[in-house]
Amino acid sequence: MNTIFETTITRIGDSACDALQDDMLITFREGAPADIEEYCFIHHHSQTSGDLEVGGVMELGHTRYPITAVGEVATQNLRELGHVTVRFNGDTEAEFPGSIHVTGDTPTDIPLGSMLKFSVKGVENV
């Protein structure tokens, strides 16, 4: 697997954990507008070196989540805004253009300093 994006959670909005109860994780880069930041896990933005894709993996802390669906603007939102909405329901079609879906149990707590990483399968030389 090739890492295409890796970051660290630096702030947690006052209502960010509420979304976890709805099986969602919402991220945004540092510098988000205050009304948006309240609902997000804020991270130090980094470069994106590829596209999110089905069959890839999201890692949050030490837990790996297979990616089952990627909305049509999810990679662009991640690249430009550090924003993505992750749904922990394993759907194979993205609910919204900016969402991705993964399989696995929704985390109950995401502490400050947690690592968030997206990886995709590498291309093999033949």
Task: Describe it.
- One of its GO terms (molecular function) is transferase activity.
- The modification Phosphohistidine is found at residue 43.
- It comes from Serratia aquatilis.
- This protein has 126 residues and is mainly beta.
- The chain has one domain: Phosphotransferase system, glucitol/sorbitol-specific IIA component (M1 Pyruvate Kinase, Domain 3, Beta Barrel).
- The chain is 14% helix and 37% strand.
- It is built from 3 helices and 8 strands.
- Strand 4 (57-60) and strand 5 (63-70) form a beta hairpin.
- The mean pLDDT is 94.
Task: Present the secondary structure layout.
Layout lengths: L1 E11 L3 H6 L2 E6 L4 H4 L3 E3 L13 E4 L2 E8 L3 H8 L2 E4 L11 E4 L12 E6 L6
Parallel strand pairs: 2-3, 6-7
Antiparallel strand pairs: 1-3, 1-8, 2-6, 4-5, 4-8, 5-7
CATH superfamily descriptor: Phosphotransferase system, glucitol/sorbitol-specific IIA component
**Helical content band:** 10-25%
Strands of the widest sheet, in order across it, are 1-3-2-6-7-5-4-8
Structural class: mainly beta
Task: Give a short overview.
The chain is built from three helices and eight strands.
